[in-house]
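Notebook B, p. 112. Complex prediction, attempt 2.
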Amino acid sequence: MPTLQDVAEKAGVSTATVSKVLSNTPYFTEKTRRKVMHAVEELGYAPNLPARALSGGKTHIIAVTFPYVYEAIFTDPLVLRILEGIETECTQRGYNILLSTPLLSADGPDEHYLNLIRSGYVEGVIAIDNVPLASAFEPVKKRGIPGVVLGYHTGDYFVRSDDVSGGLQMMNHILGLGHRKIGIISVPEVLHFSIYHRLEGMRRAAERAGLNFDDLPKANGDFSVNSGEKCAAQLLSEYRDITALICLNDRMAMGAIRHAHEKGRHVPDNLTIVGYDDIPMAGSFEPPLTTIDQQAPEMGRASARMLFEVLDNKKPAPIHVPTHLVIRQSAAPPV
Amino acid sequence: MPTLQDVAEKAGVSTATVSKVLSNTPYFTEKTRRKVMHAVEELGYAPNLPARALSGGKTHIIAVTFPYVYEAIFTDPLVLRILEGIETECTQRGYNILLSTPLLSADGPDEHYLNLIRSGYVEGVIAIDNVPLASAFEPVKKRGIPGVVLGYHTGDYFVRSDDVSGGLQMMNHILGLGHRKIGIISVPEVLHFSIYHRLEGMRRAAERAGLNFDDLPKANGDFSVNSGEKCAAQLLSEYRDITALICLNDRMAMGAIRHAHEKGRHVPDNLTIVGYDDIPMAGSFEPPLTTIDQQAPEMGRASARMLFEVLDNKKPAPIHVPTHLVIRQSAAPPV
DNA sequence: CTGAAAGCGCTTACAG
DNA sequence: CTGAAAGCGCTTACAG
């Protein structure tokens, strides 16, 4: 592989000059620039990034952390959509994405992750940080690496989905349809910060409509399809007058719908069931799911853009990515 | 951040000694080892990986490439499952994963990707390489970087799903149920090498049963749910006697089922529709999909293990990951 | 505008 | 078993 040295020799200039031309420093003649670029072309030179990192500090690597806890993140469709948004921005800037899956426990993230953070590879990090148990961003902050939090853990810079509004929109929609006997399929709040805020939004909508939110029947699943099925079974057998089920993610909604169908209840004619997330499959489910679109790719893009601003020594303001109610066919007025 | 230098001073030895102790070279006294490790602990030292990469050549970074073409890879659930398998192995070995999404065109991969390959960051690569249009592995090979191909493009080391067997199993199952009027929803073969082999497997099964495979009605979609819906519409209106539809991925099968339901046909009582891939949602769809499990996580794991063998200067044999027929409820005997 | 030289933090023969 | 020294390929003040 050709080195900067080789380029310098071929162009008949010093390595310092080549380095400056390549990094777009001003102050060199057009002629020099051309000589250098010509040599670069001829040799097919590409900079050695570890060397550049060692001397200059810029690694051109962004670490993106997905917490490894509570459920297989590798089956969560949102993960990929967020990554999509981040990738778009990073590629545009010539940055590379290092995928990191810190194993979170009460003691904090695992050793392998900590070593990565201290490795000198990471110029910036985007931390999906929504697990109350522990923060993946904490060690990043301590180490002084620029970063943005995608979620609710504390960071100077963050992007959040507008979960309160999402919960509120959904509850309003269900109330607007005329439902009053509403069951909620959630997950334990300790699993995910967003849950608390979505419930809070629902509470506001409910109380505005004169409903006591705390009295509404609730069951906790674990985000999985199966758990949605079980929770629906429990709720529907215990509270026979329920006309609508609000699920805190799409997969549990799908499980709930399956249960309803098994019991011979038609969704939405005979029972309303809605989800949250708008995963890729939501629109082709039967019935197509009424749900909340979190705009995952936009969250990814926004967090990457924010990180690049931080790397440029700016102080970007927090961003709340709006949620959208997606009305499909799993909700209807009660019979 | 403490450096190896700091550790050496604190331990009262040379940097060479520290380096050797840390890399587990034999030949040093237990006492020295303890002194060094003690200093490491005290200082919270972690090696600077760019420096290590520059001097030693080992970067501890594996690039994983997902081709960016034909459809949004970021909506393909298999991508994440493969990544899961790779992650497991890499973390175990203390390696990091650099996510790479080469943009493939007839001229080959894009410049950003090429620069990554020449960057000195990449110690090894796992290339998901199934797009006939161009190979992402080609530049890796040329550059002399160790790598394994997950797919059908040429590489010295490779892992493949047993697509022929997958197609064969599925066709056999459908034939075994008694179907003879079978429609096939595929995608153009130029999109994905696997398609060719799955069809080949189906052909063998069909001909073994005395059916002329070429005479079977076929339509091409593009992997998406919507395209499955359209293809089903076309096939079913053109060939009224079709009793079973074999789709080359689950999402198209879901689209096909949607179309069938809209037309008032019950699946599977009135029409059999099967998929391929066994994506996470397949089991909770209505009806639960009969499909082929490719064992995506195992493919990821196998390719990572193979790569580490190559990095250890071994010559691993190719691996064909077996496929499994997953019988659920979308297929039944014809009426 | 250009270059000589030091330095980034490691590893690796080579001596001892 | 341990250490001095060179070198990996860059960037960055500092001179000129």
